[in-house]
Amino acid sequence: MSDHETGGMPSDEDLSLPKATVTKMIAELLPNDITCAKETRDLVIECCVEFIHLISSEANEICEQESKKTIAPEHIISALKRLGFESFTAEVESVLKDHKQQQKDRERKVSKLEQSGLTEEELAAQQEALFAQSREKFRTTTQQ
Question: Residues of 100-126 as b/e, b for ≥16 C-beta within 10 angstroms?
C-alpha cells in the first residue's frame, strides 16, 4: 500500500497529470499533420510535474518566510519571479483575475430553492404531486 492510500503524502512516482488531458492539449497545439509519440507525451507530463513541484516548493518557502500556513496565489507569482519565469506572471495574473471574477459570479447566483420563494415543505408537496401524476399517467397507459 502506498503512502497516498494510507493517508500520507504521495511519493513523486504517484504524482502525475491525466494522460488524456495532456494528449488533448498537445494535439490542440500541434499542426494537424504532426503527431506526438506516447514516450514524448510521458516526457511532457514528467516535465510538467517537475515544473509544478519546483514552483510549489519555492512558493512554500516564500510562504514560510512570511510565517503563513497557506500558499496564496501571490506566493505562486512571487515564486515564478524568483525562479526566472517572470514572463509567465502576466498570464497567471490574468487567469487569477478571471478565476476571482468567476468565484464572485458563482456566489451571487441564488439557488433555485431560494429563487422559488417556496418553503422546502411546499416544494416537497409539489414534487409528490408530480410523482402522483406521473404514476397515474403510467397506470393509464399500461392498462390500455
Answer: eeeeeeeeeeeeeeeeeeeeeeeeeee
| C-alpha cell of residue 27 | 494535439
Cell of 39: 514516450
What gap in Å lies between CA 79 and CA 54, rounded to an integer?
9
Q: What are 102-119's pLDDT values in tens digits?
A: 888 776 666 666 777 888
pLDDT tens figures, 15-73:
899 999 999 999 999 999 999 999 999 999 999 999 999 999 999 999 999 999 999 99
**Contact between residue 62 and residue 79 where contact means Cβ atoms under 8 Å apart:** yes
DSSP 62-131: HHHHTT-SS--HHHHHHHHHHTT-HHHHHHHHHHHHHHHHHHHHHHHSPPHHHHH---HHHHHHHHHHHH
Cα–Cα distance, 6 to 54 (Å, whole number)? 25
